[in-house]
Amino acid sequence: LSVVTLVSCAVFTAFTGASGVTIIALGGLLYPVLLKENYPEKFSLGMLTASGNLGLLFPPSLPIILYGLVSGVSIDQLFLAGIFPGILMIVLLAAYSIYFVRDINVERTRFTFKNALSAMKEAGWEIPLPFIILFGIYGGYITITEAAAVTAFYVFVVEVFIYRDIKFRTELPKVMRESMVLVGGILVILGAALGLANYMVDAEIPMKILEFMKVFIQSKILFLITLNIFLLIVGFMMDIFSAIMVVVPLIIPIAANFGVDPVHLGIIFLANLGIGYSTPPVGMNLFIASFRFNQPIIKLYVAALPFIVILLIALIIITYVPELSLFLLK
Fold first, then answer.
1. Closest CA to 278 of 247, 310, 301, 299
2. What is the pTM (predicted TM-score) of this model?
3. DSSP letters along 23-64, please?
4. What gap in Å lies between CA 174 and CA 270, rounded to an integer?
5. What single-letter DSSP state applies at residue 18?
6. What is the dihedral of CA 315, 67, 232, 200, to 10 degrees?
7. What angle do CA 50, 220, 318 make, to 5 degrees?
8. Phi first, then psi: what are they for 280, rounded to 5°?
9. Less CB within 10 Å around the terminal CB: N or C of the chain?
């Protein structure tokens, strides 16, 4: 189940481009299931908090598209470059998850085509949804904002009139009320994050740090180490879209001076910012997870830390083995 959780979060984030949304949407479903299957509470909280960013490197991730537009790097090349680094993150986290539960009595289900067909049959109404949304967006029939409304309407019809899991008069108003509270909480967190991001831009903090890097850093290795530290800080201080708009134009010419491939730089950039979302003390996903799971923020710090360490190991490999990103481009 832990492997399924990691892959599901990665796929969901790839489609939405928002790791916080993954925690809200999938976390609420997977957290009680993980507990029911005897996964420890701290492990479950940490995995769901840290895995919300896994899909940022997979197509059709919106951050990749925005990075390509701002940097002038080919979006198609970025899509290809992100595949193996994204898989590396999932594999390392999956290996840790399997190792962690080796002595815990959790259910293990072997893959069989019979079970797969049975699961697909049970999810017959859910499976078409992502294809409908992708066809609508990339076919030019709906915008991304309209896709959210289409999704909500589709799920409303399926849940209320087909599955009848939600009673129209008695249970639907409760679902709407709970959804409004969740959205309101997210907006408060995003508002605070955007306010901090705007302050950093007005105070020219990213520019000052990069000026320091230009003056005192002379080697490529030292530049990459400093760049990772800088981007992790940016990741937990700014939302990813603001960071792309503000920071990318500043680091591209500096990275070019040190001979860093622009496509590889994009993968390093997005990997750092994704990890920064879950990095203490002020990573935005920590606060979203604290709100979603109704847990103290300190508890989320401790729970997410082992997963952050593993993601940082993956980041080191991604940074210093550029062939991992550029292999499919040759």
1. 301
2. 0.82
3. HHHHHHHHHHHHHHTT--HHHHHHHHHHGGGGGGGSTT-HHH
4. 38
5. -
6. 170
7. 30
8. -65, 155
9. C
Residue with tokens 């940074």: 319
Amino acid present at 324:
L
User: What number of other Cβ atoms are within 10 A of residue 8's Cβ?
Assistant: 17
Q: How many C-beta atoms surround the C-beta of residue 40 within 10 A?
A: 15
pLDDT in tens, 74-131: 988 999 999 999 999 999 999 999 999 888 887 777 888 988 898 888 888 888 887 8
Count the neighbouring beta carbons within 10 Å of the beta carbon of residue 187.
Answer: 10
The CA distance from 180 to 203, in Å, is: 34
Query: Judging by beta carbons within 10 Å of its beta carbon (0-12, 13-18, 19+), is residue 156 exposed, middle or buried?
Result: middle
> Is a pLDDT exceeding 90 seen at residue 203?
no
Using alpha carbons only, what angle is made at residue 120 by residues 119 and 121, rounded to the nearest 5 degrees? 90
Per-position b or e across 73-104, b if 16+ CB within 10 A of its CB: bebebbbbbbbbbbebbbebbbebbeebbeee
Contact in structure between 50 and 95 (CB atoms under 8 Å): no
In whole angstroms, what is the distance from residue 264 CA to residue 231 CA? 14
Instruction: State how far the Cα of 297 lies from the Cα of 303, in Å rounded to an integer.
Output: 10
CA–CA separation, 263 vs 77, rounded Å?
A: 7
> E strand or H helix at 278, and its extent?
none
Spatial CA neighbour of 293 closest among 24, 3, 51, 19:
24
Neighbours of 160 (CB within 10 A): 16
* Span between the terminal Cα atoms of the chain, in Å: 36
Q: Which amino acid, 113?
A: F
pLDDT-derived band at 319, boundaries 50, 70, 90: very high
pLDDT of residue 240: 83
Query: Chain centroid to CA 287: how far?
Result: 14
Tokens representing 120 are 């697909």
Name the helix (H) or strand (E) containing 90.
Answer: helix 83-100
Closest by CA to 265, choosing from 244, 283, 286, 291, is 244
306, two tokens: 């082992």
